[in-house]
Amino acid sequence: MIGEAVELDVRTARLPSRALGFALDALIMLALLFAVLLVTELLGAEVDDALTAAVGLAITVGVFVGYPLLWETLTRGRSPGKYAMGLRVVRTDGGPIVFRHALARALAGFIVDFGLLSFFTGVIGIVVSASTARGQRIGDLLAGTIVVRERLPRTGLPGLPPPDPRLAAWAQRCELADLPDDLALAARQFLVRAGQLAPPMRAQLGGRLAADVAARVAPPPPPGTPPEAYLLAVLGERRRRETARLGGSPWGGAPGSGPAAPYGSAPNPGPAPAPARAVASPWHGTGAGTPPPSPTPWSAAPVESPAPSGSSEPSSGFAPPG
Length: 322
Fold this sequence. Notes:
Layout: H1 15-43, H2 49-74, H3 80-85, E1 87-91, H4 99-113, H5 123-131, H6 138-143, E2 145-149, H7 168-172, H8 181-193, H9 199-214, H10 227-245
Antiparallel strand pairs: 1-2
C-alpha cells in the first residue's frame, strides 16, 4: 500500500535487475573482504593459524552482513547495486525500512538466500524470488519487505489525470493525518471508474465521498471546488508527501517550487480583495467581477445532473465542513 491506500503502483523489481544489482554489491563486498583480510594478514603475521582463521571468519561475516545492513539502514533501502539499477527496498505497505528490516534481510541473505545454506551460490534466493508473486526472497518474507523500482510516475496519480494546479497551494497546507486508508482507497476507486458511471450516480457518489474526505481534512477547500477535483488534489498531495518521504522526485518538482496561485484567485495575488470584487472559479462559468459562489452548496462532479423538479438541494448533496 502507498499513501492513498491502494496497492503499490510502482513496479516491483524483476529478477534480472535484482540479480545485476546484487552482483555489483557482491563485487564490492569481495573487494572489501580481500582488502581487509590482506591488511589483517600483514598486521598479524606472527599469529597462530587458529586465531587467523577465527579473525578471518569474523571479518567475512562482518562484511557480508554489515555491508547490506549499513547501506540499507542509512539510505532507507538502497545499496550501491540497487542505486545503480534504480531499485529500493521498502516495506510491504510502501513505507521506508528501518534497522530491523535491514538486519533481517542481511542475516537471512548470508545464512539462507545467498550464503551458507545455499553454498554461496544464491540458488535458494533465486528459486524463492522466482516463486513468489512480488519477487520476495526469504529475507524479504521474514522482514516484510519488497524491492521496487524507484522510478515513480511524474505526471500524477497513475490512471488518473494530474491534480488541478490551482489547488496546489491549498493542498500543501492540508492536514491529512486523519484521512483513513479505506476512505482514500474508496475515493481513488471512484475516480478511476467515474467515467463509467451514469451522471446522476457519478454526482451523488462524488459528492458523498468528497464530503466524507472534507470532514477529515483541514482546512476546508476553496469555495466552488468540484468534488472530483477536490478528491484528486487530496490524493495527489498525499502521494506527493509519500514520494518525498521515500526520497523520490514527486511529479518533477519539489513542493512550492513554482508560483501556485490559490484556486479561483486572481492571477497576481495581493492583499485580500473585497468579496464583491473577488474572481469566481472558472469551473462555474462566471466572469470576472462576479462574487464567488456560496461555500455551502458545492457544485457536483464535472458531469452534472439536473436536480429533480421541486427539489432545492444540489444533486450531489456535498457541502464542506463548517
